[in-house]
Write a structure and sequence with these properties.
Layout: E1 4-5, H1 16-22, E2 26-31, H2 51-61, E3 66-69, H3 74-81, E4 87-90, E5 95-98, E6 102-103, H4 106-110, H5 113-127, E7 134-137, E8 142-145, H6 154-167, E9 172-177, E10 180-185, H7 191-201, E11 209-215, H8 221-226, E12 232-236, H9 242-245, E13 248-249, E14 253-255, H10 258-268
Parallel strand pairs: 2-3, 2-11, 3-4, 11-12, 12-14
Antiparallel strand pairs: 1-13, 4-5, 5-6, 7-8, 8-10, 9-10
């Protein structure tokens, strides 16, 4: 299937084609966090999963494999979810943990601890005088949020990030998101590769299992592309928002909101 603009992607809820693809097979569900399990909010620390969504996710996880793949720090995402017994890949899939096998990436992540700490300190210093800028440290990366920065000052954030990237030439990878810049080690890894890795590690690579990935951000396109021929990508976004509607996506189906995600997961359950 070729990529399409979001406005041309059919809805996942009540879709007979999607139901037919799942008939007689078991879904393995991979979920982004922000914009999927919790609405996008002004302050990242306020993105707490609702009690009802938490119940739906817990119920689904008793029936099928459920994994969270997020740009958030792994432990922070667990705190915001209020769930600590799901497989989770934090920092865009870089920091992986499962309830049965524990941390699968600690040794690898630790190679970059000093680099991430140094970059975090520099970004804090360089954005200190920009009102609304928020630097979020993570184990395997650091995020610079500018949602609350005055539009007139946002060029200062992008310039600061570029200066840091230039200072660490070749050592960092820049991942843009929704009102955020993510800086992490320059390694060939992303959410799509994390999903494929988890499919292998969790023993989900069989004909009777259909991987589903729900995501809303540009970084989720890696997962949609990775599952193009072996699973189902579902983009979450308001089709009435021009920035969403005109976006090109590799997702096959769409859901308009976090509320629709909740209804969809309840239907799967």
């Amino acid at each position: 299937m070729q990529d399409a603009t979001v406005r041309d992607v059919p809805p996942a809820l009540g879709n007979p084609e999607l139901a037919g693809r799942l008939a007689g097979r078991r879904p393995a569900v991979f979920l982004d966090y922000d914009g999927v399990l919790s609405p996008i909010v002004e302050r990242p620390e306020d993105a707490v999963m609702s009690e009802h969504m938490r119940t739906v996710v817990r119920d689904l996880a008793t029936r099928v494999p459920v994994c969270v793949v997020t740009g958030r720090d792994r432990t922070v995402a667990q705190q915001l979810m209020g769930i600590d017994d799901l497989t989770i890949a934090g920092s865009h899939g870089f920091d992986i943990w499962t309830p049965t096998q524990g941390a699968l990436s600690d040794t690898y992540v630790e190679q970059y601890t000093d680099l991430v700490s140094e970059v975090t300190a520099r970004l804090r210093d360089d954005t200190r005088d920009v009102p609304g800028a928020h630097v979020e440290p993570k184990r395997a990366s650091v995020a610079v949020h500018y949602r609350q920065v005055d539009p007139a000052d946002r060029d200062r954030i992008s310039a600061t990030v570029q200066t840091v990237m230039d200072a660490y030439s070749g050592k960092l990878k820049l991942t843009p998101g929704k009102m955020v810049y993510e800086l992490g080690p320059n390694v060939d890894w992303n959410k799509g590769k994390a999903v494929l890795y988890l499919i292998d590690v969790l023993g989900l690579d069989s004909d009777d299992i259909v991987p589903l990935y729900l995501g809303d951000d540009i970084t989720d396109e890696y997962a949609f592309q990775a599952l193009r021929d072996r699973g189902i990508g579902i983009l979450v976004g308001d089709p009435d928002d021009p920035e969403v509607a005109n976006r090109t996506t590799a997702a096959r189906y769409a859901l308009a909101s976090v509320d629709d995600v909740e209804r969809f997961l309840a239907t799967l359950t």
